[in-house]
Design a protein that fits this description.
The chain has 251 residues and is α/β, with parallel strands linked by helices. The chain is 43% helix and 17% strand. The chain has a single domain, classed as Rossmann fold (3-Layer(aba) Sandwich).
Amino acid sequence: MQLHLYILTGASRGMGLAIAEQLLKAGNSLLCISRHTNPNLANFAQQEGVPLIQWTHDLADGVGASERLKTWLQTLNPSQLASVSLINNAGVIPPILQLGQSRPADLAQALRVGLEAPMALCAAFLGTTSHWSIPRKVLNISSGLGRYPMASQAGYCAAKAGMDHFTRCMALDEALQTHGAKVCSLAPGVIDTDMQVQLRGASGESFPDQSKFLQLKANGQLSSPAQAATQVLRYLARPDFGDKPVADVRD
């Protein structure tokens, strides 16, 4: 039986873990790349009888991750696959401070994980599979903060804005290929994750928008990781996926 292969970053917790859990069903195969493996995910995959590989890799080393992915993809036989999809979900939010108060090392970390690694992984994925005739997709998990500026969020906003724009360029590249991949940078809505906890717990003096995030939580306006994962995967499965290189699940 031909399997649908999914490659997912940031799968050990939050929405990434929820996406991984929902992908562990018959007919699929999953490679997860995260700083830590998740034993519960491994147990669930075993129960469902779904092939699962978990790599421990810090995506601050995007070059190393992309080389590892390239080498692994070269071992695969595309005739045994029904499709292949790369989901770049990993990201980090640096300390919530005005840019002038931020540590360059924290900004560099956010940009490496949130922009450099996804770009490097896309390059390895698209280049290595360019001769594959099966459907190929790239789903980059973006954010509304890549499209709307926010004080004390320069590092995260810049990473997501860069992700949106390189996805636009990538879409133009793939449109020129005979079997080009369908690509999209997708905002998943506002989700109740550790990142939201970090935003709500920030100092009001350094983060003037803190009250907005407190209200979102108080008013029950946050999606659960499982709800967000369902929306994201539903969008990935849409027949018009890739028609818009930058999109929002709420569109």
